[in-house]
């Protein structure tokens, strides 16, 4: 998984030992579902060690929306209550 960037952070990430632009990782994860007209659901899955939110996206074929909602509800029940991320603005340098 690729954690979200902090506001103003647009650096690269390392995936399998290769440097990849962060926006490429985000685009490749979300563009397929949008271009293929798939039904999508994103559920919260916790936070990174820095407190940034993590979500899991599930996609399904058009017309399978109910099945997707069942998967999301089951995962939500299995994970239990997840604390909301800290939404206070921080200095972009991490100070």
Output the keywords:
95 residues, alpha+beta, flat, 31% helix, two-stranded antiparallel ribbon
Describe the structure.
The chain is an alpha+beta fold and 95 residues long. The chain has one domain (12-79). The chain has 2 helices and 4 strands; from the N terminus they run ββαββα. The chain has a two-stranded antiparallel sheet with strand order 1-2. It has a two-stranded antiparallel ribbon with strand order 3-4. The longest helix has 15 residues, at 65-79.
Helices and strands in order, then pairings?
Elements: E1 12-15, E2 18-21, H1 22-35, E3 39-47, E4 53-60, H2 65-79
Antiparallel strand pairs: 1-2, 3-4
What is the string of helix and strand elements? EEHEEH
Number of distinct helices = 2
Helix amount: 25-40%
Task: Provide the number of structural domains.
Answer: 1
Instruction: Find the structural class using helix and strand composition.
Output: alpha+beta
Task: Report the sheet-strand fraction.
Answer: 25-35%
Mean pLDDT, all residues: 78
- How would you write the strand order of the largest sheet? 1-2
Please state the overall shape, judged from the principal axes of the Cα atoms: flat
In angstroms, what separates the terminal alpha carbons? 25 Å
Strand segment tally: 4
Radius of gyration: 16 Å
Largest sheet: 2 strands, antiparallel
What ranges have pLDDT less than 50 throughout 5 or more consecutive residues? none
């Amino acid at each position: 998984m690729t954690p979200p960037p902090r506001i103003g952070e647009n650096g690269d990430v390392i995936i399998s030992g290769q440097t990849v632009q962060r926006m490429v990782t985000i685009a490749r994860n979300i563009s397929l579902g949008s271009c293929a007209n798939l039904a999508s659901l994103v559920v919260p899955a916790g936070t990174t060690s820095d407190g940034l939110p993590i979500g899991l996206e599930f996609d399904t074929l058009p017309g399978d929306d109910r099945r997707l909602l069942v998967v999301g509800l089951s995962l939500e029940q299995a994970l239990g209550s997840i604390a909301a991320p800290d939404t206070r603005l921080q200095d972009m340098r991490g100070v």
